[in-house]
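for the recovery benchmark. tokens below, seq after
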């Protein structure tokens, strides 16, 4: 048998292209990329010692992969099957785990735990967990959904999404809502600050110093927010907030206000105000569809960044914190980007309806 150290290494065009792709692609395993570089360097000529010096690897590495390539070509560069413990879980057991998870529940419970299912199938809890993870099954997780019964659901979705994706010319579009009963909470013990290895800690109990309501109007084009704090959120308070929006919007622009179906938004006092302010037009979201209002996304940021971990010893402190948050937000405001079209949203609702109205429901 000829010495592989002396045998010339010649690549075909296809082999060279494949090896170069292995070297370039980031997804290629590090070991496979190194072997491809070794073979390409050997094809350029030179002894194993010279190739090892050029690549900065051990001479034995070059010798091994040159020989493997000459003997098996590209297949020789892949890892060989490694020895290990023989497989103990059969395909039938894997199928049983999946079928029981999807189609059955244990007696007296609403879903399987990995230990309960392991006892039933006769394998270890770790094996059940691996099977669940491989097939994307999460029996412990649940999600809520609500299909809107609004008879004008499709028309309202098209109306609101149309304002997001193709707003009218010479008009300002606002997503408006209230965040009621914001609590001024003071922890009964001082907050312990974060230190390396230990997160910030707060006491569970608290003292409440009152509540306040926040009206917010998010300009969907700029991301800026018009806010107003109020002790209540009655129809007259909503009307007064519409007055604030009207005063702050440039004269000559139409105003489109997206709001939910709260009775205060449709009260006679609001209707009378709209008659005297013809440039303002209300657009209503479908019932049970607060997710379609962009101001809810802003409320989520407010809750996460300002309120969840805030400590407020008085209602005045809470008021000052909310006003400061709105001011800082507006200083660097950026709009939320709406990407779903009305047809995409309606198609997804139809898929939900098909699933919940099928057999077994």
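predicted aa per position
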């Amino acid at each position: 048998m000829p010495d592989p150290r002396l045998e010339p290494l010649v690549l075909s065009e296809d082999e060279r292209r494949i090896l170069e792709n292995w070297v370039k692609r980031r997804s290629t395993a590090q070991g496979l990329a190194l072997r491809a570089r070794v073979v390409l360097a050997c094809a350029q000529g030179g002894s194993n010692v010279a190739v090892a010096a050029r690549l900065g690897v051990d001479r034995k590495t070059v010798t091994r992969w040159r020989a493997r390539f000459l003997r098996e070509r590209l297949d020789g560069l892949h890892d060989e099957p490694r020895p290990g413990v023989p497989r103990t879980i059969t395909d039938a057991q894997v199928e049983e785990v999946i079928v029981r998870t999807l189609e059955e529940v244990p007696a007296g419970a609403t879903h399987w735990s990995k230990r309960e299912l392991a006892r039933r199938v006769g394998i270890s809890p770790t094996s059940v967990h691996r099977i669940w993870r491989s097939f994307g099954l999460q029996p412990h997780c649940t999600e809520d959904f609500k299909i809107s019964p609004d008879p004008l659901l499709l028309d309202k979705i098209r109306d609101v999404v149309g304002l997001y994706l193709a707003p009218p010319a010479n008009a300002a579009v606002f997503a408006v809502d209230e965040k009621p009963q914001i609590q001024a909470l003071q922890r009964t013990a001082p907050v312990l600050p974060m230190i390396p290895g230990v997160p910030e800690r707060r006491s569970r109990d608290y003292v409440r110093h009152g509540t306040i309501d926040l009206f917010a109007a998010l300009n969907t084009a700029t991301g800026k927010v018009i806010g107003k704090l109020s002790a209540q959120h009655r129809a007259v308070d909503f009307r007064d907030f519409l007055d604030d929006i009207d005063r702050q919007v440039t004269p000559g622009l139409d105003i489109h206000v997206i709001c939910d179906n709260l009775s205060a938004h449709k009260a006679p006092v609001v209707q009378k105000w709209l008659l005297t302010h013809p440039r303002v037009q209300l657009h209503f979201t479908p019932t049970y569809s607060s997710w379609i209002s962009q101001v809810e996304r802003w409320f989520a940021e407010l809750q996460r960044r300002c309120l969840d971990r805030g400590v407020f010893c008085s209602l005045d402190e809470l008021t000052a914190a909310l006003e400061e948050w709105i001011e800082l937000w507006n200083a660097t405001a950026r709009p939320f980007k709406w990407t779903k079209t009305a047809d995409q949203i309606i198609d997804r609702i139809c898929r939900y309806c098909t699933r919940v109205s099928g057999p077994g429901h």
